[in-house]
């Protein structure tokens, strides 16, 4: 995906004048609705989506920047726009300073990976030293677009970020732990870490109601193995574990759970 292709020429305003945060969101909706891609999307639906996101926490990230955004099931393609408020507007920003540059995203509900990348790219572009002052100095939509794009990466990495599973392996047997850890560590493209844990009895023993059931020395062995595994290797990893434990449903002292990942990037070392 290229940011130049989703920053819609018709969704730019180099001289907006909203007087409050709510007016900013209403202006964003009006600007977004200029795009033919949103012609069949109700304006109130977009406004409600933006408001719901703001309820989770202000998208005014400081330094005069806000990036209101929402994901809607009725939206098929990304619509990105840009608005400059020269006088500044209170947006409940994290640094309590007025906002001057508002970049917005109206996104498809299914485009989480691209949405994250867009947010990151826009945020990084607006945080380039001098970028905000340059953007605020532009007098037309065309100049605003050109100036903004100069500070962005042209290509966004939108490769699949959901191609992995997260394994949680809870182990209460030290010998079993070592064998399972070795198998997971040898699995192709697998990142593994170990979290030291304690069994529930350690904490229950400190509650007066349960006092006397366990002694202070009855800590037991407990470790949690966290492993990020390629989806294509999930069954193989499970087979490796059951090659050690036998049928997991019949085994005590180990519990395995596997989760879908919303977003995965990076890789861990072993040292």
What does this structure look like?
The structure is a single chain. By secondary structure, this protein is α/β, with parallel strands linked by helices. The protein folds into 2 domains: 3-150, Mannitol-specific EII, Chain A; 164-260, Alpha-Beta Plaits, CATH 3.30.70. Helix content is 33%, strand content 24%. The protein contains 9 helices and 10 strands. It has helices at 3-6, 21-32, 43-56, 112-126, 131-136, 141-150, 174-185, 200-204, 234-245, and strands spanning 7-13, 60-62, 65-66, 69-72, 79-89, 99-108, 164-171, 191-196, 223-230, 254-260. Strands 1, 2, 3, 4, 5 and 6 form a 6-stranded mixed sheet that branches. α2 crosses α3 (43-56) and α7 runs antiparallel to α9. The model has no long low-confidence stretch (mean pLDDT 88).
